[in-house]
Amino acid sequence: MTDPICPLCLRPIPPDVPQSLHHLVPKLKGGARGPVVLMHHICHREIHAALSEAELARSYATPEALRTHPRLAKFAEWVARRPPGFTSRVPGRRRR
Protein backbone atom coordinates (compact mmCIF):
# COMPACT_ATOMS: atom_id res chain seq x y z
CA MET A 1 0.00 0.00 0.00
CA THR A 2 1.32 3.46 -0.86
CA ASP A 3 1.51 6.30 1.64
CA PRO A 4 -1.13 9.04 1.38
CA ILE A 5 -0.02 12.32 -0.23
CA CYS A 6 -0.13 15.62 1.65
CA PRO A 7 -2.49 17.98 -0.20
CA LEU A 8 -0.31 21.03 0.54
CA CYS A 9 3.28 19.95 -0.18
CA LEU A 10 2.39 16.90 -2.31
CA ARG A 11 4.95 14.70 -0.47
CA PRO A 12 4.08 11.21 0.82
CA ILE A 13 2.97 10.92 4.45
CA PRO A 14 4.63 7.82 5.95
CA PRO A 15 2.79 6.33 8.95
CA ASP A 16 5.64 7.14 11.35
CA VAL A 17 5.78 10.93 10.75
CA PRO A 18 3.75 13.60 12.60
CA GLN A 19 0.46 14.06 10.78
CA SER A 20 -2.91 15.61 11.44
CA LEU A 21 -6.37 16.04 9.96
CA HIS A 22 -7.27 19.46 8.56
CA HIS A 23 -10.92 20.52 8.33
CA LEU A 24 -11.23 22.20 4.94
CA VAL A 25 -13.91 24.45 6.45
CA PRO A 26 -12.94 25.26 10.05
CA LYS A 27 -15.11 23.66 12.73
CA LEU A 28 -15.97 27.08 14.16
CA LYS A 29 -17.22 28.17 10.73
CA GLY A 30 -19.58 25.23 10.22
CA GLY A 31 -17.15 22.54 9.10
CA ALA A 32 -17.34 20.19 12.11
CA ARG A 33 -18.95 17.48 10.00
CA GLY A 34 -17.36 18.63 6.74
CA PRO A 35 -14.52 17.11 4.76
CA VAL A 36 -11.08 16.65 6.30
CA VAL A 37 -7.73 15.91 4.68
CA LEU A 38 -4.72 14.13 6.15
CA MET A 39 -1.52 16.17 6.00
CA HIS A 40 1.90 16.54 7.54
CA HIS A 41 1.64 18.24 10.91
CA ILE A 42 4.17 20.88 9.82
CA CYS A 43 2.00 21.72 6.78
CA HIS A 44 -1.13 21.90 8.92
CA ARG A 45 0.57 24.27 11.38
CA GLU A 46 1.71 26.52 8.54
CA ILE A 47 -1.86 26.80 7.22
CA HIS A 48 -3.12 28.00 10.58
CA ALA A 49 -0.14 30.33 11.02
CA ALA A 50 -0.86 31.96 7.67
CA LEU A 51 -4.66 32.16 7.57
CA SER A 52 -7.49 33.02 9.94
CA GLU A 53 -10.49 30.75 10.35
CA ALA A 54 -12.61 33.26 8.41
CA GLU A 55 -10.11 33.34 5.51
CA LEU A 56 -10.00 29.54 5.43
CA ALA A 57 -13.80 29.28 5.31
CA ARG A 58 -14.26 32.09 2.80
CA SER A 59 -11.46 31.61 0.29
CA TYR A 60 -9.28 28.59 1.05
CA ALA A 61 -11.62 25.63 1.61
CA THR A 62 -9.94 23.32 -0.92
CA PRO A 63 -6.39 21.96 -1.18
CA GLU A 64 -6.06 23.66 -4.57
CA ALA A 65 -7.00 27.03 -3.09
CA LEU A 66 -4.57 26.57 -0.20
CA ARG A 67 -1.72 25.99 -2.66
CA THR A 68 -2.52 29.34 -4.38
CA HIS A 69 -1.96 31.42 -1.23
CA PRO A 70 1.44 33.17 -1.64
CA ARG A 71 2.85 32.24 1.78
CA LEU A 72 1.61 28.65 1.57
CA ALA A 73 2.90 28.25 -2.01
CA LYS A 74 6.33 29.45 -0.91
CA PHE A 75 6.24 27.14 2.13
CA ALA A 76 5.14 24.14 0.03
CA GLU A 77 7.98 24.74 -2.41
CA TRP A 78 10.45 25.00 0.48
CA VAL A 79 9.24 21.96 2.44
CA ALA A 80 8.96 19.81 -0.70
CA ARG A 81 12.77 19.76 -0.80
CA ARG A 82 12.84 18.11 2.65
CA PRO A 83 12.29 14.42 3.42
CA PRO A 84 8.69 13.37 4.26
CA GLY A 85 9.51 13.05 7.97
CA PHE A 86 11.00 16.55 8.25
CA THR A 87 9.74 18.58 11.21
CA SER A 88 10.58 22.11 12.24
CA ARG A 89 9.09 25.09 13.93
CA VAL A 90 6.72 27.01 11.69
CA PRO A 91 8.96 29.51 9.87
CA GLY A 92 8.07 33.17 9.66
CA ARG A 93 5.66 35.22 11.70
CA ARG A 94 2.23 34.07 12.71
CA ARG A 95 -0.69 36.01 11.27
CA ARG A 96 -1.83 39.04 13.20
TrEMBL record:
The organism's lineage is: Bacteria, Pseudomonadati, Pseudomonadota, Alphaproteobacteria, Rhodobacterales
Q: What is the scientific name of the source organism? A: Gemmobacter megaterium
What name is this protein filed under?
HNH endonuclease
